[in-house]
Amino acid sequence: MMNVHFFPSKRIAFYMAKLFVLRSLAVLAALVIVLQTLDLLGESGKILAVPGNGDADLWRYVSLRIPQLISRFLPFSVLLGTLITLATLNQNSEVVSMKAAGISAHQIIAPLILASVGIAALTFLFQERIVTRATAELNSWSKADYARLPPKSGILNDVWVRQGDDIVLARRVQGRGAATRLSGVTVYERGDGTLQTIINAKSGAPVSGGWELRDVETFTVDSGTTARADRVVLPHSAEADQFTLARVDAGEMDFMTLKKAIADLQIAGRPTGPLEAGLWHKLSGPLSAVLMPLLAGIAAFGLARSGQLFLRAVTGMALGFAYFVVDNFALAMGNFGAYPPLLAAWAPFFLFLLIGEAVLVRTEE
């Protein structure tokens, strides 16, 4: 009689989930050790070339890089862990025994999918609490060529803002909102596609109806004349947040912080498509672990003695790697604005969910 429960017995489910998790973690550990060693060999010369850097800085780099490697290669590890688990069960005829007991293909895969849901949840929390902070610190450190970083001051350098046809450059930005202060301001005023005026000011601050500039020098392109003034109020509609939010990196922010930054940018009239794609990918990315047992499930079935086990394992691996290729392509298209953010983040997940289900049903059910 066919087993009508979604999961097999509790003992079988625990046995399969344990094999799956342990093998996935073993593959992840091997990948991270190898990749971290190769990466450190490439970066150690740059780190040690800075006067004052030593072994402690190498270990600091490793501590910041390992969370990125774990986050990036965990789905690959789940894919390989699934293939190893299912191929081993098939080779030992354990799958045949389960099917002879009336357990369907979906019931065999179900414990692995349930375990991968837990892995996806832990991955999301790991990215939110650890990976984003490590990414922000490592990016800042690498941009400084691994030199000692000063304490965070909230100061931004060389910020460009476009408002209509005009372009504003602030070489130094400090503060937020009404307390925003600009230093080394250059305003390029354009009309009909041509440059009309260049305004250089020592400092700037937001006031009602525009920006107050101090120590101003104005160059008029048509006449070639220069005028100076101690104070000029520029009736410009650029918001203060456009300067303080000029650099937003989705990889350096957790979900809620990035969502708030996107809302602020939308209020300021800034394009947010790539950031929205990155926001939703923070959810769809960890969930890719749930797909791996389904895509690699084909390796569990078919008689091992038929000689097709290797072919089935290769097919499962090909489906898994095809997902990562399509996912990266869709996210790149979302960053370029060719795909809507939701489509770029979620379309690959649902597409391969349907493909994996179709392959499993067609071959086994």
Automatic annotation (TrEMBL):
GO cellular component, one term: ATP-binding cassette (ABC) transporter complex
Transmembrane segments: 12-35, 69-87, 108-126, 283-302, 309-326, 338-361
Main subcellular location of this protein, as a coarse class: membrane
Signal sequence, start to end: none
Entry keyword NADP: no
Stretches assigned to coiled coil: none
Pfam families reported for this sequence: LptF_LptG
Membrane topology, from the record: Multi-pass membrane protein
Lineage top rank: taxon: Bacteria
Subcellular location: Cell membrane
Protein name: LPS export ABC transporter permease LptG
Native species: Allosphingosinicella flava
Gene that specifies this protein: lptG
